[in-house]
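Incident log, structure service

09:12 report received: a user says their structure output differs between two submissions of the same chain.
09:20 pulled the input from the user's history:
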Amino acid sequence: MPAHPDLADVVEALHSDLAEWMGSNAPPKVFDRFANALHDEFSSVTTVGQIIDRDTLLAGVWSARNAQPGFTIEIADIEEIAQSGSLLTVRFTAENQQGDTRSRRLVTAILLNTDHGYLWRWLHETTAPPAE
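09:34 re-ran on a clean worker, output below:
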């Protein structure tokens, strides 16, 4: 099932803001955009199986400003998995790069379609093998 045209923009925008925040001396508005994209009850399962709530994630992201200069995140293979009412499940690949170091993650997320656009409600990351 192909992704909604604007869904790709939503996925890429969140990760672009995260990479800009972590990889540069970004202005606070970049952090605000990232934070405002997350639902109040957002939670995430990390690649090591840790469950993180919104406040914990945002505290970590806030402290990571410019911690990895030049950090980038490339998004690929965005796919809508299911939709029910205002909930949308999406899967994609995120590849983080810092210098010569690359890591890939397969990500599944549930987004809530609101009157003000999509809000990220839940996210689960799994380490993926390097691209061939």
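09:41 both user submissions now match this output. Likely a transient worker issue. Closing.
09:42 reviewer note: The chain is about 30% helix and 45% strand. The chain has a mean pLDDT of 94.
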